[in-house]
Amino acid sequence: MYENIKYEVKESIAYVTVNRPQALNALNMDVLGELYDVFSTIEKDAEVKAVILTGEGRAFVAGADIAQMYELSPIEGREMMTLGHKVMNLIESIEKPVIAAVNGFALGGGCELSMACDIRIASEKAKFGQPEVGLGIIPGFGGTQRLARLVGKGMAKYLIMSAETIPASEAYRIGLVEKVVAPEELLPEAEKLAKTIASKAPVAIGSAKTAINNGYDMDMKSASRFEIETFTAAFSTDDKREGMGAFLEKRAPEFTGK
Fold first, then answer.
1. Which of 99, 133, 193, 204 has the smallest C-beta neighbourhood within 10 Å, fewest atoms?
2. Catalytic residue positions?
3. CA-CA distances (angstroms) from residue 233 to 52, 210, 220?
4. Which segment of 167-171, 187-191, 204-208 scores lowest on mean pLDDT?
């Protein structure tokens, strides 16, 4: 179905693997287009309750495809960055939790791709960085914005301006990833988390993601109002009645996502 991506759904978990190992999974226009298509499909698929995004081989995504970018005019470069933003924004906004299982290099566009995900679990072998200034450009897939929101402005400026590559342990220390595990434990750990999330009420999971994302840049009063409205909407769902009913009846809930 896809040239540069492996995609399958098993037990309500969608597995998306960037599959250009010969290029360390570098993002070119074709890969970005396929990522946009696959996440658009996931967004509409009621069967999918959680997503695991990873890379084939020894890289998560080692960056954007410099060979392709070198030939681009400013207008063509803008088109590529616009598509990149569409992909990252879609991953960030769909009401399905997306877990990045970072297996190796996550540099430039790869670091930006991981930051668009909701949760990042990294292999001890993973490396993170935004090396763009060494190439005469800056991060262009949202890196200047998401990195600052995750690790703070000072640390974001340090990493972007120095172009330093950091190990998974340092990424964990500064809050860029949520968990670091041995390489052989990466996918099992991501699957365990995905299955835990998938067992919860799908509408509530999506609403919680939306409330966190939208409220983050609001003032506290506006964010609190948004939370109240989102909470209230949950009271109209079948999942709310099933979840609370199951709790009172001391049984496991059977959520329908309605």
1. 133
2. 112, 132
3. 28, 12, 20
4. 204-208
Residue pointed to by tokens 């287009």: 33
- Residues paired with 17 in a beta bridge: 6, 54
pLDDT digits (tens, 9 = 90+) for 200-225: 999 999 999 999 999 998 999 999 99
Phi-psi region of 246 (alpha: psi -120 to 50; beta: other; left: phi over 0): alpha
In the chain, % of residues over pLDDT 70: 100
Q: What are the E-state strand segments in 147-187?
A: 166-167, 179-181
Bridge partners (DSSP) of residue 179 are 121
* Region class of 25: left (phi > 0), else alpha (psi between -120 and 50), else beta: left
> For the chain, what is the total number of helices (H) and then of strands (E)?
11, 10
Single-letter residue type at 172? Y
Q: How far is CA 239 from the centre of its chain?
A: 25
